[in-house]
Amino acid sequence: MEISIVYQDGMMDMVSPLKLQKLINHDGIIKFQRSDGWVYPEIDPVRNLSDSSYRGPERRLGS
């Protein structure tokens, strides 16, 4: 699955979730698109995939 992004220079691209996280961490993008619309990392809340501070059970993996 690739995600639509807009770089700081205004160019659009499609990237993997891993590359998206790297770009967010290094302020490389203005916005990216979720199913419900555009997200601005400097304004909107975004999850940090490299934050491993949560020590509870992983509830998203199964139903």
How would you describe what is shown here?
By secondary structure, this protein is of the alpha+beta class. The protein is built from one helix and four strands. The protein has a four-stranded antiparallel sheet. It is globular.
List keywords for this structure.
63 residues; alpha+beta; globular
Low-confidence stretches: none
Strand tally: 4
Mean pLDDT across the residues is 84
> Span from first to last CA?
22 Å
Helix content: 10-25%
Major β-sheet, in short? 4 strands, antiparallel
Integer-rounded radius of gyration: 13 Å
Which term fits the overall shape? globular
Strand content: 25-35%
Structural class: alpha+beta
**SSE order:** EEHEE
Please state how the strands of the largest beta sheet are arranged side by side: 2-1-3-4
- Count of DSSP-assigned helices: 1
Task: Please sum up the structure shown.
By secondary structure, this protein is of the alpha+beta class. 14% of the residues lie in helices and 29% in strands.
Write the layout of secondary structure elements.
Elements: E1 3-7, E2 12-15, H1 17-25, E3 29-34, E4 37-39
Antiparallel strand pairs: 1-2, 1-3, 3-4
